[in-house]
Amino acid sequence: MDMTAAVAEPIASDQPLLRVQDLDKHFGPVQALFHVNLDLPSGKVTALCGDNGAGKTVLTKCVAGIYQADHGEFFWEGRPVHIHNARDASRLGIETVYQDLALADNLDIVQNMFLGRERLRTGLLDEDAMERAASETLSSLRVTTVRSIRQPVASLSGGQRQSVAVAKAVMWNSKLVIMDEPTAALGVVQTKMVLDLIRRLRDKGLAVMVISHNLNDVFEVADRIAVMYLGRLVVQDAATKFDRQSVVEYMTTGGFGRSGGRPAKES
Questions:
Q1: Could you tell me the fold of the domain covering 3-108+173-258?
Q2: Nearest to residue 68, comparing CAs of 48, 50, 88?
Q3: Residue 38 and residue 93: Cα distance in Å, rounded?
Q4: Of the candidates 178, 167, 160, 182, which has an alpha carbon nearest to the alpha carbon of residue 114?
Q5: CA angle at residue 106 from 201 to 208, to 5 degrees?
Q6: CA distance linking residue 79 with residue 195, whole number of Å
Q7: Are 114 and 120 in contact (CB under 8 A)?
């Protein structure tokens, strides 16, 4: 597989790769998202922070096409687009790595990476082509700790599983990779492996959105930080503009404490 097809080129534009504008989402009488605006630029890691129930998962699922927004617009590379389902998101180049990773333990690494997208040659599985493509993708991301690409996923460590899930996502011409709590339940060494992997995605020119409660990880890897509070995105800016205390304050008060009673504006 030509690896140039598997990674995004940085967009030569002032436009973010994805712009979410005025997004609303209701579940019956409950409004889960209020006029959310979010920019996700290429070649940057954007950390999405917020307490439980802040709306992070709902926003993520709207971007991934799992939920349909009730109101609002998406702009992809500056052009308006519709994301009605997961296929629309995938066609644009949006891939999501959920917390449960959605890997099949009984299948090996290659089988997982091609699950539902198997390559055929003369009506049979083209095992050689799939092995080559999987191996090239893993090596391009410097995922070198797996013993064999034919080992069952059940035999992998938490960090290796996360790495395989990310490699699976970036194989398909993805330009935006969304990662939901990628270091949850990982030890120090495994966490470092995953954070290094996130940096490599950024360095390849992809946009990365990381949903995380772990502020140590956020400040370790994020270029930008966006904070949600009670369904609203209350602030987004360069990570250098924040410290841990300010992020916690936005997460717990929505910025009301620092702006004299008004919600913080998005920059």
A1: Rossmann fold (3.40.50)
A2: 88
A3: 17
A4: 167
A5: 15
A6: 31
A7: no
Give pLDDT tens digits for 36-53: 999 999 999 999 999 999
Whole-prediction pTM: 0.84
Handedness of CA 60, 62, 63, 64 (dihedral sign): positive
Q: pLDDT (tens digit, 9 = 90+) per residue, 196-215?
A: 999 999 999 999 999 998 99
Beta strands in the chain (DSSP E): 18-27, 30-40, 45-49, 71-76, 79-81, 94-97, 120-121, 124-125, 176-180, 207-211, 224-229, 232-238
Reading the block at residue 156, the tokens are 């992998």
Q: Are 19 and 71 in contact (CB under 8 A)?
A: no
Please give the radius of gyration of the chain, using alpha carbons only, rounded to the nearest integer: 19
Euclidean distance between CA atoms 69 and 59, whole angstroms: 9
Question: Taking the domains of the chain in order of start, what are their residue ranges?
Answer: 3-108+173-258
Q: Tell me which residue has tokens 């398909």.
A: 172
Rounded to whole angstroms, the Cα distance separating 254 from 129 reads 50
How confident is residue 65, by pLDDT bands cut at 50, 70 and 90? very high
Q: In this predicted model, what pLDDT tens digit does every residue of 4-21 receive, in sequence order?
A: 334 444 444 578 999 999
153: amino acid identity, one letter: V
**Which residues neighbour 130 within 8 Å (Cβ) at sequence distance 6 or greater?**
110, 113, 114, 118, 119
- Choose among 191, 220, 233, 205: nearest CA to 56: 233
Nearest to 31 by CA among 3, 2, 53, 7: 53
pLDDT given for residue 242 in this prediction = 96
Considering the chain, what is the average pLDDT of its residues? Answer: 87
